[in-house]
Amino acid sequence: MTHRAIAKWASNFRNRSAMEWQSEGLIIGTRRHGESSVIIETMTAEFGRHLGLVKSGRSRKYAALLQPGNSVQLVWRARLADHLGMFTVEALKLRAAGLMESRQRLALSQLLCEHLRLLPERDPHPRLYAEALAMHDNDADGETLARALAKFEMRLLNELGFGIDVSACAVTGEEEGLCYVSPRTGRAVTKPAGEAYKDKLFALPDVLGGSLEMDKADAIDAAFRLTGHFLHLHIWSPRQLSPPSMRQGLIEGLVKAL
Fold first, then answer.
1. Rounded Cα distance, 178 and 167, in Å
2. Most buried residue, 77, 131, 192, 241, by most Cβ within 10 Å?
């Protein structure tokens, strides 16, 4: 086979692969399209946040299936790789009805879906996808869920390029005993280095890798204050978005239950 033939075969293979794929996905959003169709927004491990059209998606057949929080088997096809494309969808795990039975689980699912929708389209983030699925299916106590959600928000910031640096003290370089975080730089400092400025710094609880001694409720509250500040600073405000409406109520409920 000549070099030209090999290049042509490789190009055709890439185009064919780009125009059809199969994967499991979590539905994170839907919107109507025309009189009978629906555009669904999904999160997959391999293809990231991905949109596609479901023909007749507003029919009774799809009413219970195309709901945020459900896991589905997807086949995506498009004539060109950069087109919206079309989905065929089959049920894998329908959670939506069960989520409606618990205000806390519903709010958690809605918040996770809103967070995943902040990710760039078609950019894989398999760990965030896996963590979101685990929280959807986890019947753990409030403290476990709160810790998982705070870590998820921390990872979301990291994967969007706005990570909070808890690797070493910004002043001394020490890797142990980190207790505070600068609201401006997102870098951590030890207790001796930050004690004089602690009223202007965020507390760094153990759930996010810190060493500051706090009771459980205060630690969870501090974790969400920290992630919420940097989500607002780097993501919500620049994109002119309001924080998800369910976030504060969910956090308050989780903290109150501790």
1. 9
2. 131
- CA angle (110, 107, 112) in 5-degree steps: 40
Neighbours of 108 (CB within 10 A): 26
User: Would you say how long the chain is, in residues?
Assistant: 258
| Nearest of 95, 88, 113, 83 to residue 23 by alpha carbon | 88
Task: In whole angstroms, give the CA distance from residue 94 to residue 38.
Answer: 18
Closest by CA to 197, choosing from 218, 212, 179, 222, is: 179
Percent helix, percent strand, percent coil in the chain, to nearest 5: 45, 20, 35
Give the per-residue pLDDT at 170: 97
Handedness of CA 70, 71, 72, 77 (dihedral sign): positive
Residue for token digits 């501790």? 258
Q: Find the angle CA(167)-CA(170)-CA(173) to the nearest 5 degrees.
A: 70
| SS3 label, residue 55 | coil
What's at 212, amino acid-wise? L
DSSP state of 242: P
Q: Are 135 and 144 in contact (CB under 8 A)?
A: no
Burial class (CB in 10 A: 0-12, 13-18, 19+), 19: middle
pLDDT, averaged per 10 consecutive residues of the chain (258 residues), comes to 46 56 97 95 98 95 95 96 94 94 94 98 97 91 92 98 96 97 97 95 96 93 98 97 96 89
Q: Which of 185, 221, 224 is nearest to 201 (CA)?
A: 185
